Amino acid sequence: MQVRFTKLSGRYEIAVDRSVGATLAPRNGPGHSDAVPHDVAHLLVEIEDGLRGAVYGRLAAADGDDGMFWPADPKARRASLKNRRSPTPQESADMARSERLASLTVALWEVARGHRKPDPAWPGQVGDSGLDSALVERLFARYDDFSARWAALPVGGTITLDWPFPEGTGKRRRT
């Protein structure tokens, strides 16, 4: 599966190309950032922490609509609404971890790189975050790389990132 992030004026768009399931319509992304957009942080966090039940793992599994993205074809969209399913407890836990990691690590990275003033209330210090230092280092390196590429990108330009885990139907936590 490939995820394309297109830089727009003051916002961004996400498109997901996968080899299974219905073709998905692109959508605008929440949480615009000039450095690391929110959905980029989710993707990088989920890859680095192996979170297969959060946003991108669910999309790659292609085994039921849960409302994050919609099929591009109206007929497929209607069918997907009938097949909407609630997340499993593990998927809910993965999503909560993804949200926490995406929000916290980007904020910590912004402080470390001088994009945000330090604040003991939020995000605090890396050492006080309770996060694995190796995970934080990997994420900071990913954010450094992405933000440099994103900053150099003109409006309308695209960066494509790969989801490294298997795609398929029937199981969201495929190995």
Automatic annotation (TrEMBL):
Protein name, as recorded: Uncharacterized protein
Organism from which the protein derives: Nocardioides simplex
Classification of source organism: Bacteria, Bacillati, Actinomycetota, Actinomycetes, Propionibacteriales
